[in-house]
Design a protein that fits this description.
This protein has about 450 residues and is an alpha/beta fold. Helix content is about 40%, strand content about 15%. It has helices at about 20-25, 35-40, 65-75, 85, 95-110, 130, 140-155, 170-175, 180-210, 230-255, 275, 325-335, 365-385, 425-440, and strands at about 15, 75-80, 115-120, 160-165, 215-220, 225, 260, 265, 285, 290-295, 305, 315, 320, 345, 390-395, 415, 420-425. The protein binds 5-hydroxymethyl-3,4-dihydroxypiperidine.
Length: about 450
């Protein structure tokens, strides 16, 4: 392994990312209403290990400490999300001033430290009344979402210049499909996908109207699919997987139509929907963790199954550790979407079971090695012609990994969930030195020891 780190363009933005439900806690404080995830976590057998987001990292009450961790890291950008039920508990109408005031403190605290806020309007937690009306399968949700986005931009648009409408519509759609038989999974999942796209498209002009010089984008979790071999059925399965995952949102956003299979678009859109969805974007957010290799299968909504990637180990969540495939995904994007807006890498990270050693240090060399390898791929893609303008590590803090609970730790900062004490990991010190080197023009030798 070379210790020489690549030098990125001087204007490249470096950051870290989080999401409200995963870190904030304070689930019913100061007028916040319940969310779909509160309900899900509170029901018997909800999240792994009985986890809830009731306290999480208690970021809501420890904002100053977390802002100082960001400043100490030396990032120029912080991607966070707003909890919709905290600011608009019923999902329409009344705005909760105390909830909005929290995000004022967050945004002002970032700006005071010279860190640019990047605001995600929706990272999966919506008010329970929205869920009761069908969630993203509900017909009114896109319009409710666009109203909510406008409320945020009216409040924060004077200070927040970078806006992300929706994080990972694919994850939202899969979540809605889980446990359903294939036929109904296809029907419900694809309806949710379309409503997510409509919500996004309706929100874009509303955001634009209130941010002068603002940048508006969306985050997609992309994998990069390949067949396990040359068998025609597996090759066809990989093409199907690409359509139902990577292209399902890229195509309507960037090509103005849903992808087709067997001569038919995979989603039936109403008159005028495509024009709404394809509203011009200023950036495309890409979240990348692992590639996908698939075989044909009789089960599953879309008749393919993921199989191991040869030569790659797996991480705590069972995902292939294959950072070299990141470059393949970026070059696929370059080749297939030449008119795409500039890319921001909005998430990239590594789950592990990090714990402090006897001296209290948290050593996470595998995370450092993974991030370094991914960054080399991003750099090579830029050299090859990709227009990539920023990179955000997922995540600042260990946090609630949704259905998986608190066991998978993604943070650069360890959180002791009993005491809520924060301990910067070795990866935090590595990233800080990496960023300092980038500011000096790159030629530092950060290595793995802090
Ligand atoms: O924790 C999630 C995040 O909320 C969305 N992107 C993937 C991350 C890791 O699974």
């Amino acid at each position: 392994m070379s210790d020489q780190e690549p030098t990125f363009p001087p204007a490249f933005r470096w950051g870290v990312a989080t999401a409200a439900y995963q870190i904030e806690g304070a689930w019913d404080a100061d007028g916040k209403g319940p969310s779909n995830w509160d309900t899900r976590a509170h029901r018997p057998g909800g999240l792994a290990g009985g986890a809830t987001g009731d306290v999480a990292c208690d970021h809501y009450h420890r904002l100053a400490e977390d802002l100082d961790l960001l400043a100490g890291l030396g990032v120029g950008s912080y991607r966070f999300s707003v909890s919709w039920p905290r600011v608009q508990p019923a999902g329409s109408g009344h705005w909760n001033g105390r909830g909005l005031a929290f995000y004022d403190r967050l945004v002002d605290g970032l700006l005071a430290r010279g860190i640019e806020p990047m605001l995600t309007v929706y990272h999966w937690d919506h008010p329970q009344p929205i869920e009761d009306a069908g969630g993203w399968a509900g017909r009114d949700t896109p319009a409710r979402f666009a109203d909510y986005a406008e409320g945020l931009v009216v409040r924060f648009g004077d200070r927040v210049k970078r806006w992300i409408t929706i994080n990972e519509p694919l994850s939202v759609m899969h979540d809605g499909m889980s446990g359903l038989p294939p036929e109904s999974a296809r029907r419900h999942g694809l309806r949710m996908a379309h409503h997510l796209m409509l919500g996004h498209g309706l929100a874009v002009p509303r955001l634009r109207a209130h941010t002068r010089g603002g940048e508006i984008g969306i985050c997609l979790n992309l994998a990069g699919f390949s067949p396990a071999g040359n068998e025609p059925r597996d090759v066809a399965a990989a093409a199907r997987a690409e359509v139902y995952e990577d292209r399902l949102f890229l195509d309507p956003l960037l090509r103005g139509a849903y992808p087709e299979l067997d001569g038919r678009p995979v989603v039936e859109a109403g008159d005028g929907d495509h024009a709404v969805i394809a509203a011009p974007l200023d950036f495309l957010g890409v979240n990348w963790y692992a590639p996908a290799r698939v075989v044909a299968s009789a089960s599953g909504a879309f008749r393919y199954t993921r199989v191991p990637v040869p030569g790659a180990g797996t991480n705590l969540l069972g995902w292939p550790v294959a950072p070299e495939h990141f470059g393949a995904l970026l070059s696929w994007l370059r080749a297939n979407y030449p008119d795409a807006p500039p890319i921001q890498i909005t998430e990239n990270g590594f789950p592990d079971a990090d714990e402090p050693d006897a001296t209290g240090s948290v050593r996470d060399p595998r995370r450092i090695e993974y991030l370094r390898s991914c960054l080399r791929q991003v750099h090579a893609a830029i050299e090859a012609g990709s227009d990539i303008r920023g990179y955000h590590v997922w995540s600042l803090l260990d946090n609630l990994e949704w259905d998986h609970g608190y066991r998978p730790r993604f943070g650069l900062v360890h959180v002791d969930f009993a005491t809520l004490a924060r301990t910067p990991k070795e990866s935090y010190r590595w990233y800080r030195r990496f960023l300092a080197a980038q500011r000096r023009g790159g030629t530092e030798v950060p290595g793995c020891s802090a």
